[in-house]
Amino acid sequence: MNIFILEDDFIQQTRIETIVRKILTKNHWEYRNCEVYGKPSQLLENVTERGGHQLFFLDIEIKNEDKKGLEIALEIREKDPHAVIVFVTTHSEFMPITFQYQVSALDFIDKELPEELFKKRIESAIAYVYNHQNKTMFEDSFVFMGAKAQIQVPFAELLYIETSLIPHKLILYSVRERLEFYGQLSDIIEQEPRLFQCHRSFVVNPYNISSIDKKERIAYLKNGSSCIVSRLKIQSLIALIERLHVKES
């Protein structure tokens, strides 16, 4: 579980972070990160994972910033349809507007609530993420859980994953985005058997292969991108694609 707090007021930053950490300690809930940011740009730069284990507490009004909390929520939602978003604000008049942005916020918490009720609402949000983070492995999702990263993207949008020039890092390419994270291709295959390792540096989603150049040993994806296929894997990949086409017909 990763928790992100966007709040520009130092007193409120301290208040919310203290409450969150006490709740985590009291319930013995494991988490990877709990970070506080005063600027939207800082938060967005440090969001490197995707999935239902990501919890964002966002203030709606950020002083001296062009992008407000609602716009940040929209950016988060566009990148990650599974993230959990909670608005924490003194501006209760903005609550109807949040529905217009269609970011599917879990809750809208007023900072001026009685302290015990405020804490209870914060705890409810964290409990929701903690209890649901391991229930997001739907058949239509690719989920990778590593020691340093957890990634979730729609399986139908996943194209391929390759090794990065940075040691121990991988790069995932989907229809909509490029994600870089720590992991090993062997762990990817172990966790997601629907993928196929076509080369020592590539794992491909065979469901998104449009054609294969046997001579050049290149697999072309539905979006026009391509990846290399090793000489030892070319026949196995072709046979797999043929089996998939039979199932679809």
How does this structure look, described?
With 249 residues, the protein is of the alpha/beta class. It has two domains: 2-135, Rossmann fold; 141-248, LytTr DNA-binding domain (OB fold (Dihydrolipoamide Acetyltransferase, E2P)), CATH 2.40.50.1020. The protein has helices at residues 10-27, 40-45, 69-79, 95-101, 115-132, 185-191, 234-248; strands spanning 2-6, 33-37, 54-58, 84-89, 107-110, 141-145, 150-154, 158-163, 169-174, 178-182, 196-199, 202-204, 209-213, 218-221, 226-228. The chain has a five-stranded parallel β-sheet, with helices on both faces. A five-stranded antiparallel β-sheet has the order 10-9-8-12-11, covered by helices on one side. Helix 1 packs across helix 5 (115-132). The longest helix is centred in the first third of the chain and has 18 residues, at 10-27. The radius of gyration is 21 Å and the shape is elongated. It starts with a strand and ends with a helix. The relative contact order is 0.10.
